[in-house]
Amino acid sequence: MAAPPVRRPLLARLAGGGRIGPALEFVRFGSAVVDEAGPQGLGITYWFDAPDTDEAHDVVLRLTGRRLDVEGPRTPADEFVSETRLQGLPPRAGRTSLTHRVHDKAAGRWQVHADAEAIPSGGASGARKRLPHAEGVGRSTLALVAGARAPGVVLGAWPALVALGAVLGLGLQAALAPAYGLPRGPLLVLSLVASLVGLVGARLYYRLTHRHEQAVTWLSGLSVQGFVLGAAGALALGAGVLGASIGDVLDVTVPALLLGQAVGRQGCLLGGCCVGVPSRSRWAVWSSDRRVGTRRVPVQLMESVSAAALAAVAAVVAWQVQPTPRGVLFVGGFGAYVLVRQLLFPLRALPRATSYGRTASLVGAGVAVVGAVALGFLG
């Protein structure tokens, strides 16, 4: 049975797909200049509906490809048979996309057939179910695009929204600077330098805590904790140059950091990173981790809303109160964000890097928040 055209979820349509599309589609950038650049690769997405049963399934997808318009004798680079497996698909997960990449093949037009089977997970009893056959004709694209794009993923969304968050954060910091008697121009220069240091810190922190992972690009794998540690350290060192106290500089910066996180986390949703676990809940949102598109806990949106609320509270406190001792607002604001972030971690579809890190972070953040409130408002 051939798969009929499928109705795409909202996020998949926002990322460049139409309302209705084929069950088998090829990843493309949409620009001939980019799509024809080398090296080339194939990104192929198979759409299906999860089995309507009470048990989780593994989905085994087998792709058979043959390059068209071949001149001369065919070679192994002109055909492929590739198999991939999606493990633990929740029951009744609904419309799902599975994207597989094929590399080291010749560039050009390809005809691909997809055959898939749903198998009860973990040896559970139940019959295997053959999913609809699909086929399509499409072209290879730039390998970088094939590896990064999938339905529901907007290329460039993450760096664009992180940059927007940084601009808005710097604007908020500049607006709050007079409340602490800080000069806006020099503070802006210091903050820009601190942001660059923070990027290096974010990268180093991630690599130290994820040594087993292979980085794809320099921007893949940037840790929030590493950024804050690097940026805060640079701000503390630069405060003396401004002739200001370290606490003043950090207190006026924490609302900006929180606002930047609120905007940047939207980029995570559109960019296919930091995704939530699959869920059948009514409030689940269809999104992709660049490989599997399915309904998930919208953990990026939850963290974004939390960061925005904390940014608003921190900004009001900075503007109206300026609590003492200086620096207590930074400790309390960032501690509260870490606390929320750690509470949301179990909802993310990512394994913990360490077995003790979440507990230590929760305890440390909780102590920081309680201590900051006691010092700043009760002391």
In short:
The protein is of the alpha+beta class and 379 residues long. Helix content is 44%, strand content 21%.
Description:
- This protein is of the alpha+beta class and 379 residues long.
- It has 2 domains: 6-148, Immunoglobulins (Immunoglobulin-like, Sandwich); 157-378, no CATH class.
- Helices cover 44% and strands 21% of the residues.
- It has helices at residues 10-14, 32-35, 143-148, 157-176, 184-209, 224-242, 246-271, 299-320, 328-344, 357-378, and strands at 6-7, 20-21, 24-26, 40-49, 57-67, 79-89, 95-102, 109-120, 129-139, 141-142, 285-288, 292-296.
- Strands 3, 4, 7, 10, 11 and 12 form a 6-stranded antiparallel β-sheet that branches.
- β11 (285-288) and β12 (292-296) form a beta hairpin.
- The model has no long low-confidence stretch (mean pLDDT 87).
Keywords:
about 375 residues, alpha+beta, Immunoglobulin-like, 2 domains, 10 helices, 12 strands
